Amino acid sequence: MASAAAPAFHQSSLDSSSGGGAALNAPKPVSVKELLDSSTDSSTAIPTNYNTSSFLNEPAVSEPDDQESIPVIDFGLLTSPDPNQRSQAVQDLTKACEEWGFFLLVNHGVPESLMKETVEACDRFLNQTMEEKLKFAGRDVWEPIRFGTSIDIKVAANCFLWRDFLKLFVHPHFNAPTKPEGLSEVVQEYSKRTRQVVQELLRGISEGLGMERGFIEKAMNFESGFQLFAANLYPPCPQPELAMGIPAHADHGLLTILIQNGVDGLQIQHKGKWFSAKPIPNSLVVNTADQLDIFTNGKYKSIMHRAVVNSKSARMSIAVAHGPSLDTEVSPSPELMEKEGRPAVFKPMKYKEYMELQQTKPTPGVPCSELIRIRTP
User: I need a surface site. Which of 104, 222, 226, 246 has the fewest CB within 10 A?
Assistant: First the structure.
């Protein structure tokens, strides 16, 4: 997607001076993209209801030292028929999950052309007319096709994020808009291919835990697991230091796979500091998420990450979250607890209920898993 110059805003028309975030709460909500397209003034100040700096107060990004970088896992070695190569790849995967919770996956078998087509197809959807996108607008998180703009942040109800999105439920039942042409087909193929990748990663993770290959798959009912496809558009922002694409959060599933359009914006937390995650070409960014954290009783922690914006180029990211089946009750694995010699640190909860908890009681900067953590006296 081509870069776009940072636009100007007509401040008086976009501010939520009435106290209700008028533009986004109107009967026909306006997306961030439409706010940009409608701007006519020479001012470069963003609307006040997009200024998150006063309450998020998230620390600045740090530069990693020479000894630290996001691990790279070679999927080809992980699936190799050579037992020595596979054993080494499993060890590398285990170390990445324990120490980082993020890794770059190369030689994964998902065609570069399919990755590019998926990003471009979602870009076309989010650049359609508002009339077309509003057919799928709504706040119900269980809508299988949902277009939205920003999210409400509970500690500042009138403040919005610099993001437009499309969310699709793609497994166990596939859902997608019929427009633009080709979107449904490419999303379905990409979702299928990433699911195959995640299935193999879960097998490698199971081996690394000292269990049989299908250990996590079976326990999480992965065959009927919930797969959520999310396309995020972050338009260029005149004051990126004040706005936020998505604040610090942890994902709700088992593993999440992310690709983007070549514009950086993902930042991850590692050892208490924030680092920019710069994927190498044609790699998949993979991170461990809450249900894996819970199932491994905290051994593989769900890592906080965020999306920042910039003033020069629109960023598009595609995140596909892979989780258990919605009716699976996830709790620390008894087998792993016995192996590790530790008591459970999380309460059991059905995956669907966990997702609803994450939506209704979010606290910026705090993983939802903290709400079900067992507190010791």
Answer: 104
CB 208 within 8 A of CB 94: yes
Q: Whole-angstrom distance between the N-terminal and C-terminal Cα of the chain?
A: 54
The residues near 259 (Cβ < 8 Å, ≥ 6 apart) are: 115, 118, 119, 279, 284, 285, 317, 318
Number of Cβ atoms within 10 Å of the Cβ of 14: 22
Integer Cα distance of 273 and 239 in angstroms: 23
- Alpha-carbon distances, residue 215 vs 40, 205, 232, 258, 275 (angstroms): 58, 9, 33, 24, 33
288 has a pLDDT exceeding 50: yes
Evaluate if residue 16 carries a pLDDT over 80: no
Binned at pLDDT 50, 70 and 90, residue 362 comes out as low
Q: Name the nearest CA neighbour of 308 among 103, 71, 52.
A: 52
Instruction: State the pLDDT at residue 245.
Output: 92
How far is the C-alpha of 13 from the C-alpha of 56, rounded, in Å?
Answer: 25
- Predicted confidence (pLDDT) at residue 147 exceeds the cutoff of 60: yes
9 strand-pairing partners: 43
Q: What's the pLDDT at 3?
A: 38
Radius of gyration of the chain from its Cα atoms, rounded to whole angstroms: 21
Q: Kindly write down the DSSP assignment for every residue of 58-110, as one continuous string.
A: PPPB-PPPTT----EEEHHHHT-S-HHHHHHHHHHHHHHHHHTSEEEEES---
- Strand ranges inside 214-322, DSSP E: 227-234, 246-249, 255-260, 266-270, 273-276, 284-288, 305-307, 315-322
State which amino acid sits at residue 31: S
Region class of 358: left (phi > 0), else alpha (psi between -120 and 50), else beta: alpha
Q: What distance in Å separates the CA atoms of residue 330 and residue 285, rounded to the nearest whole number?
A: 25
